[in-house]
Amino acid sequence: VQLVESGGGLVQAGGSLRLSCAASGFNIDDHVIGWVRQVPGKEREGVSSTSVRDGRTDYADSVKGRATISRDGANNTVLLQMDSLKPEDTAVYYCAAVSDLLVADVGFPPRDDEYASWGQGTEVTVSS
């Protein structure tokens, strides 16, 4: 099981980025995939998640209206489109996955500590 994030970088405030989470070793269609971000020294923050099988999505209030999570089934990938970026969006963004069978028991969206697999992260820096 492997998750590989890409798409991070340096962008000016107001700009956009599209983050990708490429999954291998499992099919995203029966998983919940989430994006979690962390600033060094601060708590992790769940940004968005999607239950790929049924299309449910969830967004943190801090990104609602500016972020869109979507599935690229052909490439077993989940995308996170981030628009109108703000300096406070600066963080390392991690992709995480958990079986939707588990989520059926614990509820959607899962807590950060309920994800079973994590990627290495992609860094996003938004300059003012």
SSE map:
Blueprint: E1 2-6, E2 9-12, E3 17-24, E4 31-38, E5 45-51, E6 56-59, E7 67-72, E8 77-82, E9 91-99, H1 100-106, E10 117-118, E11 122-127
Parallel strand pairs: 2-11
Antiparallel strand pairs: 1-3, 3-8, 4-5, 4-9, 5-6, 7-8, 9-10, 9-11
> Using DSSP, what is the number of strands?
11
Average pLDDT? 95
Specify the structural class.
mainly beta
Rounded to the nearest angstrom, the radius of gyration is 14 Å
Helicity range of the residues? under 10%
Subunit organisation of the chains: single chain
For the largest beta-sheet, the strand count, sense and barrel status come to: 7 strands, mixed
Strand content: over 45%
Morphology call: globular
Low-confidence stretches: none
The ordered H/E elements are EEEEEEEEEHEE
Walkthrough of the structure:
The protein is mostly beta strands and 128 residues long. The relative contact order is 0.31. It is built from 1 helix and 11 strands. The chain has one helix at 100-106; strands at 2-6, 9-12, 17-24, 31-38, 45-51, 56-59, 67-72, 77-82, 91-99, 117-118, 122-127. Strand 5 and strand 6 (56-59) form a beta hairpin. The strands form 2 sheets. Strands 2, 4, 5, 6, 9, 10 and 11 form a 7-stranded mixed β-sheet that branches. Helices cover 5% and strands 51% of the residues.
